[in-house]
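User: Hey, my collaborator sent me this sequence without any context and asked if I could get a structure. I don't really work with proteins. Can you help?
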Amino acid sequence: MSRVASARRLLGRSRQVLALAGVTYAGLALSVLSAPMLAMALGASGRGQLAAAFAAIQVMGFVAFLGLPRGVAVQDSREASASRQAVVLVGALGILSALACFAAAEILSGGDAWVAGAIRIASVVLALTGVYQIGVERLLLTSRLGVYNLSRVFNVILPSLGYIVAFLLGALTLELAFVISLIGQLAGSLVGVVSSFGVLARTDAKKTPWRFSLSMWSSTVVDGVAWRMDQVVLAIFASSATLGIYAVASTVANASGGLTQALNTVLYGRFAVSEEGGSARTGRVRLIALVSSCVTSTAVITAIGLWQEQLLGPTYGGLMVPLVLLCIAQALNDQWQLQVYRQAAAQKSAWITAPSWGGLVALGAAAFAFGYWWRLDAATMAIAVLIGAVVRLALREAGQSLDHRRERVEARA
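Assistant: No problem. I've predicted the 3D structure and written it out in structure-token form, which is a compact way to encode the shape of the chain:
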């Protein structure tokens, strides 16, 4: 009976992983179909303007909420209710973030009037983002991955479908592409907001989980900024065409880790229930995920290398170098995310915060050096991102090795 039960659990997990990965790869397939349409309709400059319209919004979504959405969700999971004060603060921070983005749109756009207007309109997403994050974290912790996948459908699949339909109708413009992207983000946000209602209804006078929230925020916000600030920096200091090339490379590289990201997501809920056997599972998953990332990245890079002009049009010269570099960085980033999920579920942050900051400093220093002494373009920004990913993992491995050595010395004593 135990073998039958184990087989059923394995089958259930496999279905969850495949469902999550299916949305990612469906999004990638649709992105491959829609990318050349978007590229031909907008050109590299228009593609860069579209990316710039949302880059600052995405960064603010990571920075503004001080880790409270995850802290509230974990508190609710462990204690059957969450802090009312924390939930109110999350809502207030969302509104303040939207107002700040609206006010700073001219600066964030790098002087592009169209981008500035688009940022002002898109800032409404930030008003929902904090509550959305509470809902999504709760879905992951309770392994309600079907509803979680629905929010991903709106964010990952709906925009590409919209681009394809608009292109086939001969109506795809920069303005319409922006509206389609905005609708996808708003619809995905509403799924998370609705999913948070159970948490909101169970709030009481508990203390705000500041210690856990801030410790994880200082790590996850750095990771989020590091993996989104690259496009913000290019939007300000490089041309729209350069940002367009980089945005395409970044999108494809992110999707190449779909199976790894699905495994991480499924295991997050498992870690929240029990840490027993976590190390062994993590080791196996990391190996499987690394192999998966290598195979998928190789296939994607080969396809782009063979049919780049047919897929994307003639305006994306210089795409291959940043694409290869960002695929490698994405594989490392997915490995890192598994460790973050594991320690977040256990309410621990050892050797997460310091390596995160170290990776961000390395990324920023590399980008500054390229911009000051040479040039900052899609390829050099990708190198900077890869340097940051390598430094972050290296610092964590070094820290864990020191801890293990200390434990062995103490055990012998």
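In plain terms: Residues 2-63 form the longest helix (62 residues). You can pass these tokens on to your collaborator as they are.
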